[in-house]
Amino acid sequence: MKIVTVIGARPQIIKAAAISRAIRNKFSEQIKEVIVHTGQHYDENMSEVFFNELQIPRPDYNLEVGSGNHGAQTAKMLEGMEEIILKEKPDAVVVYGDTNSTVAGGLAASKLHVPLVHIEAGLRSFNKAMPEEVNRIVCDHTSTLLFSPTKKGVENLAREGFKLDNIAPFTIDNPKVYHCGDIMYDNSRYFSEVSDTQSTILRKENISGKFILSTIHRNSNTDDPVKLQSIFEALLDISDRSQMTIVLPLHPRTKKMMEVNLTSYLRSKIEASKYLKIIPPVSFLDVIALEKNADMVITDSGGVQKEAFYFKKPCLILRPETEWVEIVECGNAILCDANKDRIINAFDHFKDNRPTEYPELFGDGKAADFICKEIIKHIG
Ligand code: UD1
Ligand code: UDP
């Protein structure tokens, strides 16, 4: 059978590595994968770097849509995806997560009556102001196979009317919902060992002793001057008081918006800080090395908050809510929004009370194998 896999933004490129690896190692006789890169992310360190180090096959197509307003960006992707699906005539289209690339792939497939497979289905923030929430809902409701990484994801889908006892053959009107574990857990386990031998980031950036890893890129934080200001004030306070370095691999969106939304006074404090270490975005092997060696993680990233959990690090989430509610419920992460006092208080809390239990919430590291088997069984 032939599947068309749609990727475009950094986290999807990384996620695709798990399924591509499973196909290469176990299912190459049954599945032929055609990879479409929408071009949503295009900087070398936001895209190319991952293909090389994670052994993802080169994309068969690159739509090169680049950046833009959501409508224009998604429209260009939709048009490009439609052409490719008509030409390739795949048995299914596979999309990951919740970005504009995901929704474009999903809409194009469903309009052409090609079964859609959504990996990372069912996650909800219950905040539709978040562009990703709308993308998730649209994709889930146009999918034939929905693979949810968590039990909560399955519950969310059931609440939206998905029946959990549908029987095959599955279609867009009779979809199948699975609870299968997280392919990013597969990836974190697999690449953790590779990172141990291959990452040079700690040496290259001269990072030693206790440090904190931070990543910031959510539009709700970067595009709001009050929130962005609050986050950086908190990071400066925490690093100054604890005398711990905060390593911040900077997303290009945040780099751009810091110029616009931070006062020149705060920018000069950041530049002068002995402890705030801002570096360009790093590769996946390097981010794993940072996560494994950090004392704590402060992030608004969906992926990074989970990886903090995988590597048993307490995490401050710079959002009012999360889709990965389990890690908050078990006390290993704290929701701080972009509120300076809440961020500082959560840091002080974890400094004195490190969580010791990290339950197995995200499967057994074999989600990608399971997904491939079910695709083979039910598609085509
Ligand atoms: C997108 C996803 C978000 C995901 C994030 C992962 C949507 C709606 N958002 O957000 O869910 O968490 O990717 O990182 O799909 N830019 C560059 N170089 C690049 C890519 C982006 O300079 O290679 C800059 C551009 O100024 C661009 C801005 O970053 O306008 C935002 O990029 P965009 O892809 O629109 O959204 P993200 O914030 O990256
Ligand atoms: N990541 C990376 N380099 C970085 C920052 C993050 O490889 O400099 C990885 C991170 O480990 C995770 C993924 O990118 O696997 C998460 O992507 P991002 O934070 O951009 O988006 P989100 O997960 O919030 O959608």
Verbal overview:
The chain is an alpha/beta fold. It has 2 domains: 2-182 and 363-378, Rossmann fold (3-Layer(aba) Sandwich), CATH 3.40.50; 189-352, 3-Layer(aba) Sandwich (Rossmann fold). It has helices at 10-27, 48-53, 70-88, 100-111, 131-140, 151-159, 183-198, 201-204, 219-222, 225-242, 252-261, 264-272, 284-293, 302-310, 325-329, 340-352, 367-378; strands at residues 2-7, 32-37, 61-62, 92-96, 116-119, 145-148, 176-179, 211-215, 245-249, 276-279, 296-299, 315-317, 333-335. It has a 7-stranded parallel sheet with strand order 3-2-1-4-5-6-7, with helices on both faces. Strand 11 (296-299), helix 14 (302-310) and strand 12 (315-317) form a beta-alpha-beta unit. The structure holds uridine-diphosphate-N-acetylglucosamine and uridine-5'-diphosphate (UDP).
Provide key terms for this protein.
seven-stranded parallel beta sheet, binds uridine-5'-diphosphate, 17 helices, 48% helix, Rossmann fold, alpha/beta, 380 residues, binds uridine-diphosphate-N-acetylglucosamine
